[in-house]
Write a structure and sequence with these properties.
The protein contains 7 helices and no strands. By secondary structure, the chain is mainly alpha-helical. It has one domain. Helix 1 packs across helix 2, helix 3 packs parallel to helix 6 and helix 5 packs antiparallel against helix 6. The protein is elongated.
């Protein structure tokens, strides 16, 4: 199934899609590509806002803003997301989670990729409208969607032992 179809299906039933992803046999390479793909789309979503900021404050040129965002989203953020996924797995273990580290990473990275279209919308609103009620509404929608999908995915990933998890 295409990634775009899985993204759309994740808004209706995130646990069902996560179950399919894990059943296909998730790998570390897949986790890395999900992480980097989500970060790339989120980086691109920043362009309209960065362009607006550069127009209204020309002291920092657009190229510098784009370069800083590139480093932030494609070098630093992926590493932070690995740490967040590890922390979420440890917290799930406290609640008797049976999944593995890879499942927790896939749950977070897939959630980021699923909400990336909303990030694109937020970037457009920030770039064309600027700080406003509309931007706050889209930002709130983004947060609610992300946490709903991530928690649903994490529950599914931690519910059963995946094939890559050590059997105890």
């Amino acid at each position: 199934m295409a990634v775009s179809t899985d993204i759309a299906a994740s808004y209706r039933g995130p646990r069902r899609v996560m179950r399919k992803i894990l059943a296909r046999g998730a790998s570390e390479g897949q986790a890395l590509m999900l992480n980097l793909s989500a970060c790339l789309v989120i980086y691109i979503a920043q362009w309209p806002r960065l362009s607006r900021d550069a127009f209204y404050d020309p002291n920092i040129p657009l190229e510098a803003r784009l370069g800083g965002a590139l480093i932030a989203w494609l070098a630093i953020a992926p590493l932070l997301f690995y740490g967040i996924a590890a922390l979420s797995h440890l917290i799930a273990k406290l609640f008797r989670g049976k999944g593995d580290w890879l499942g927790a990473r896939i749950a977070l990275f897939w959630s980021l990729l699923v909400v990336s279209p909303i990030c694109l919308l937020q970037g457009l609103v920030a770039g064309y409208i600027g700080p406003s009620l509309q931007l706050d509404i889209v930002g709130g929608l983004l947060l609610v969607a992300f946490f709903y999908i991530w928690i649903s995915n994490l529950i599914e990933a931690e519910q059963a032992v995946t094939p890559s998890a050590p059997m105890a």
